[in-house]
Amino acid sequence: PLSFQIDLSKFEKATDEEKKQQDVMSESASFFKDGMRKLMKNPLAVGSIIVLVAIVLMIVIVPRVVPYGYSDIVTINAQNMAPLQWSEMEQAYIDDGGSLFPHIMGTDEMGRDYFVRVVYGTKVSLIVGIFAALLVLIIGVVYGSISGYLGGKVDLIMMRIVDIIYSLPDMLMVVLLSVVLQEVL
Fold first, then answer.
1. DSSP class of 78
2. Environment class of 68 (CB within 10 Å of its CB; exposed 0-12, middle 13-18, buried 19+)
3. Which of 114, 30, 36 is nearest to 70 (CA)?
4. Disulfide-capable partner of 68 in 5, 72, 164, 185 (CB 3.0 to 4.6 Å)?
5. Relative orientation angle of helices 43-65 and 114-150, to the nearest 10 degrees
6. Exposed e or buried b for every residue in 12-37, given b needs 16+ CB within 10 A?
7. This model's pTM is above 0.90
């Protein structure tokens, strides 16, 4: 076994049966590549990713393009305007050669642009959703790690606590936590 002599029997031509088996075997793939292949076969998931990327691009690009912010009031008599309309003063400014960003969704009674407010609201909603998911991830990893590390009766008790929490409706938990935390704070 420690000899450097080459065993020529290992270098014989493959039989027809071995060649057929090679055709049946699939190409090896990494875990990521296999997951991406399965993801791309699901059109609903791909469509959701495209919509999410479009929303993220919108909340990044729009505040840089639109000349007014979330609470800025359009002061050129632009109250309660319909979508894609200009006030008289804005139209006069455009006729003189100026350019303005259109009110894509119109304005409210205070002259605030609905589109800009929706974009900023979307940004806040996504940040809250991401923060909530990260918080749940951190709590779950710490709780599960403690349960798995200690094991035995501690694991059994901790898992029963989780079962009890899952059996309660989420809204009830939010109300109970708000009452308890309000008293503590």
1. -
2. middle
3. 114
4. 72
5. 130
6. eeeeeeeeeeeeeeeeeeeeeeeeee
7. no
